[in-house]
User: What shape does this take?
Amino acid sequence: MRISCQDCPLRKLDSFQAFSASDIKITDALKHGELRVDAGMPILEEGTSSPQLYTVLQGQGVRYKTLESGRRQVLSFVFPGDFLGLQAAVMEEMDHSVESTTEMVLCVFDRKDLRRLYRDAPERAFDVTWVAAEEETMLSEALTAVGQRTAKERVAWGLMRLMQRSKASGLARRDRAPMPFRQTDFADAMGLSLVHTNKTLSMIRRAELATWADGWLDIHDPEGLAEMAGTPLNGDHCRPLI
Amino acid sequence: MRISCQDCPLRKLDSFQAFSASDIKITDALKHGELRVDAGMPILEEGTSSPQLYTVLQGQGVRYKTLESGRRQVLSFVFPGDFLGLQAAVMEEMDHSVESTTEMVLCVFDRKDLRRLYRDAPERAFDVTWVAAEEETMLSEALTAVGQRTAKERVAWGLMRLMQRSKASGLARRDRAPMPFRQTDFADAMGLSLVHTNKTLSMIRRAELATWADGWLDIHDPEGLAEMAGTPLNGDHCRPLI
DNA sequence: CGGAGAATTGAATTTTATCAACTGATGTGG
DNA sequence: CCACATCAGTTGATAAAATTCAATTCTCCG
Assistant: This one.
């Protein structure tokens, strides 16, 4: 009942770098098993150290930080192929939490194996760093959007990004992607109130640029949406899969 | 005219992890030389790939991203001990720019040596990943501050953070640190307008919590400032130095 | 049928940005 | 040495953006 890395469906996607035979073997040897979690469950928690690392095989979730005041910043949306828990593995403690939005299936790795990986498989260790750098890039872009863009631009940008990530992880076909997140999650990601996010979304819907409803996101007019965002998205490059 | 890693003044600071003799040897062997740049010079540029990596030995600067509209988000302030250019080394291209604010001295490493480091010195490779994870943490915190905190909280938080980083890099004594950045830089980091930042700073000054003037930051009342920020800062842990 | 969670909408209020003007320090060329 | 430009910081007035509050709808589920 366990998918071997050899048969991993994510490997076949264009957005992930090709695996060598030895990559497959190394990764498969480290894979402890699979974890299936229900929708709405905590996976990693801020301030705790986790003995395990995960690669998302199926399902979606959110990474977030919570303030003393109860406000919450969604740092990013989690898609298949994402690597979770690196911070706890490297620095002893997570600085954010991760929660499942849909049911999820995770490949489980052991934290203790990470140092061994660095010793025995430098190429894969390099890939781990690559993934960390990739996440840094995503956070930089989010910070720039939240810090400098107006609500309209931000929401348009956020929708483009959600579609881009959906496509890269094989969830979207054409310009239609399943969107299991609530508007509250999206508002917390964009640093906007729920009400204002909702109004901006309906404005975008009326302008016939994109529609987010009933669990699906449709982008009707990619160019128009990019124009509203004030920017085209950075091209997505191929990244390593752990 | 080149400081050997053996004599590196940063090594002696509490905020950096202890170096083993072999760490020193490895790092010293990779150090190509030193680069001295004037204040206000570009060091790395968004969208370009750099053949070199740097560790800041002296001086301060800013990392930032620029939008098409001309607006700018300062991602972080650069202090001694910071590692620059990892993204370009790993992913071929920088996603942000780095500019010196004061005159700076940088240790220069060659990008091509990075893979060799991963092959020959797994412990140091692990440290590189640690640094990347550390930067991710800083960006997460900044995103949370910009996305969820009010202007008052944000500015108070930003000042605390500047002081914390100044102390960690040996620039501050007591609660007084040199502050070569302009208010515009700080405003761009906090996602606020210059005018509003200025007014908030003078409010904090009048409340006798902290004073930023004439190139120096003084924190008169750390507890009061933390209260205004709505949070204490996360304790700073010891991190690796590359 | 009742209740809970999510989305939606209108109205009032607060926060923050923008515009504009002024100060003080610094530096340059005639 | 002085007139003049420049740049960072400061302040007041006004406008725009986004939040908060409140109420309503809709769907799903027990």
Q: What stands out?
A: Chain A has eight helices and eleven strands. The CA atoms of residues 153 and 227 of chain A lie 9 Å apart. Chain A touches chain B through 50 residues (CB under 8 Å).
